[in-house]
Every structure is written in structure tokens, then in C-alpha cells.
């Protein structure tokens, strides 16, 4: 079952109200490949609560002087590290399971 935080159901207007970011700035972050909203059949952007948290993090980093390419690079590095940790955990679980099985 998917977490409610990941369901993309919030429109850009509501996201703007919740975050204090302008719709223009939110679209800019999307253009810079920092945020990836879904689109409805009519083309309306749909965001999740997780996206809102990410937007707040992006805005804070921008205020601190980071450039969008640095934020994107940092996000990619974090994603890679997360995936590596998950692979390691799966390997450990598989090894533990196989040891008990044999």
C-alpha cells in the first residue's frame, strides 16, 4: 500500500499556498529537473506531500546560495547511496536467510 505522502494529488496552486513559493518558481524547479510532478489527463501538475517537503528543501538550499546543478548533483548522490544501502541490506537478508535454510 502506497503512503499518502507519495500520492500525487495536490495542484500547483495549493503547493504554492503551502510552501510560500510562487507557481513560477515551482515550474522553474521542474524545468531544472529538481522536482517531478505527475500530470493529469488535462495537463495539470499533481504533487505529493513528499514533493512539497522536497520543494521546501530546494528553496532553503537556494536561499543558502546553492545552484540548481549542485542541488541536482547532491540529490543524485543521495539516491545512489540509498540504492547501495538497500542492495547491501538485501544481500545481508539473503545471506542470513540462506544460512538458516541450509
Automatic annotation (TrEMBL):
One of its GO terms (molecular function) is DNA binding. InterPro entries: DNA-bd_dom_put_sf, MerR-type_HTH_dom, MerR_fam. SUPFAM superfamilies: Putative DNA-binding domain. This is Transcriptional regulator. Residues 9-77 form the HTH merR-type domain. It comes from the Bacteria. Pfam families: MerR_1. The keyword Transferase does not apply. Keywords: DNA-binding, Repressor, Transcription, Transcription regulation. The keyword Cell division does not apply.
